[in-house]
Amino acid sequence: MKRFYKEATVAETDNGFAVTLDGRTVRTPKGKALVLPRRALADAIAAEWNGQGEELDPAAMPMLRFANTVLDGVAPDPGAVAAAILRFGENDLLCYRAEERALAERQRAAWDPLLDWARQRWSAHLRVAGGIGPVDQNPDALEALREALRGYDPYTLAAIQVIAAITGSLVLALAVADRRLSPAAAFAASRLDEAWQAEKWGADAEAAARADNLAREMARAAALMDTMTGAAR
């Protein structure tokens, strides 16, 4: 699609901060006005629009994509989104340990402190098991994680969902949201098995490229969280 506007700006309204194109408020795919709760997020989205060339490139507007997702899909029913996120806690990556001793030791060193943090921070006592068989998690631990998710706004919930999906771990996603880990550190913690295999058999260029894309997506999700708090990492 060709660029159809001259300038994107931000207008303060009674409900927040609207992103406008030549004075007209941007709409989400479902027709909702793109009005954001934080000026920093609205400014970031306006900058994405202003950074477009003669041809629009939606892939270059990740903050707009996040905002559309929140306004159209998360904000109307945050409880349903939290329930979907909780499934990553039911089968959290950090609870599954390798049978190979050396890799299991590496997992223990990296993951046990995070599970200890989840117990201390959220009272979530998650069970750990070796192998790939399912772990029957303590219902009290899952309820503690559910309660933790209730404390986040829809924008942060959307970011948590992205990070949990990429890492396979709700604990890692919460650690990023709580600033216990940087997105890069959380991504590295989720890739211990892949790093182990690469050390043994060599790196695969295509797999490395996919990993780089996922790492960037995590960084963008963390940036969305930061716009809601006004704090830089």
CATH superfamily annotation of the largest domain = ATP12 ATPase
Radius of gyration: 20 Å
CATH class of the largest domain: Mainly Alpha
CATH topology description of the largest domain: ATP12-like fold
3D architecture notes:
Helices cover 59% and strands 9% of the residues. Helix 3 packs parallel to helix 6 (154-167), helix 6 crosses helix 7 (170-177) and helix 6 (154-167) runs antiparallel to helix 10 (205-229). The protein is of the alpha+beta class and 233 residues long. The protein starts with 7 loop residues before the first strand and ends with a helix. The protein has ten helices and six strands. The longest helix is centred in the C-terminal third of the chain and has 25 residues, at 205-229. A hairpin with a 2-residue loop joins strand 2 (16-21) and strand 3 (24-25). The protein folds into two domains: 8-61, ATP12-like (2-Layer Sandwich), CATH 3.30.2180.10; 78-229, ATP12 ATPase (ATP12-like fold), CATH 1.10.3580.10. Strands 1, 2, 3 and 4 form a four-stranded antiparallel sheet that branches.
